[in-house]
Design goal:
Layout: H1 2-14, H2 16-30, H3 40-60, H4 67-89, H5 91-94, H6 96-101, H7 108-135, H8 147-170, H9 174-187, H10 200-206, H11 210-224, H12 230-254, H13 258-261
Helix pairs in contact: 2-7, 3-4, 3-7, 4-7, 4-8, 4-9, 4-11, 7-8, 8-11, 8-12, 11-12
Length: about 260
């Protein structure tokens, strides 16, 4: 087992430059022929925040302090997960011609989508910090701990991305169902509404939503200035680790059959 893990690490290190090139390609393609280019990674969350604030700030103004930051702190981490997994879903099918020509570790394609999303998240956080400054929201020392929930979400998104990319090769309908699922997932995660407006039963069910925990973790660091309990850290890590193990297992079990279906 240790020998197999060692070989996988060596293969990854061998192709790390290819991973970097795939990430660079994804970012360039996303903003190709765009006048503002990567500036959209900052502008997009700001524009969405403006729309959501106008629509919902009056409705929830008595419940949520600093609503724009409340929204951004949840939206950015949720969008990172949902957008990267949606992109990873097509990653194997989209690179079919390349995989038929040369041998490459197939997991690099979905993983590159997650890593490129991580780069975009970094730029988007700049937008949030800018809004915090404009609104006079305190920069708390717990902001230094933001890499922790981002890491947990990265584990979860990577596992889900691997799972979806492998499953879509065999069941193309997944690509259509997942868009509907993400929309429902958005409303089932307290991104623009306070969780305390939900009945107790709904809150109990929501505790099984990994993104609920990641969103709440971000808000505790950003708005409350507190570090979540070790229990909450364990829950967040387990959601990410279990999904990563499941996604990796399914991907490696099925990857040798990809060429027959792409």
């Amino acid at each position: 087992m240790l020998q197999g893990l060692k070989i996988k690490i060596q293969v990854f290190l061998k192709y790390q430059n290819l991973l970097a090139n795939l990430v660079s390609r994804d970012i360039k393609v996303r903003y190709r022929r765009s006048v503002l280019g990567m500036l959209w990674t900052v502008l997009n969350p700001l524009l969405m925040m403006g729309v959501i604030t106008v629509v919902f700030s009056t409705l929830f103004r008595q419940n949520i302090e600093h609503f724009p930051i409340y929204y951004l702190s949840g939206s950015l981490i949720f969008s990172f997960s949902s957008e990267t997994t949606s992109n990873a879903l097509y990653s194997i099918i989209g690179n079919a011609s390349l995989m038929k020509k040369v041998y490459l570790p197939k997991y690099l394609f979905p993983v590159s989508k997650i890593v490129s999303g991580l780069v975009n998240l970094g730029f988007s956080l700049v937008a949030m910090f800018l809004v915090m400054w404009l609104l006079g929201v305190e920069y708390r020392v717990t902001l230094l701990l933001l890499p922790i929930p981002i890491f947990y979400t990265f584990l979860f998104a990577t596992g889900l991305g691997l799972l979806l990319s492998a499953a879509t090769v065999f069941f193309r309908d997944i690509s259509h169902f997942y868009g509907v699922f993400v929309m429902a997932w958005t409303y089932f995660t307290p991104i623009f509404y306070p969780v305390d407006i939900l009945p107790e039963t709904a809150r109990a069910v929501m505790s099984w939503n990994p993104m609920f925990h990641y969103v709440q973790y971000m808000r505790e660091l950003i708005l409350a200035g507190t570090f979540p309990s070790m229990k909450e850290n364990l829950v967040c890590f387990l959601f990410g680790a279990v999904m990563l193990v499941l996604g990796t297992w399914v991907f490696y079990k099925k990857q040798d059959q990809f060429v027959l279906y792409i």
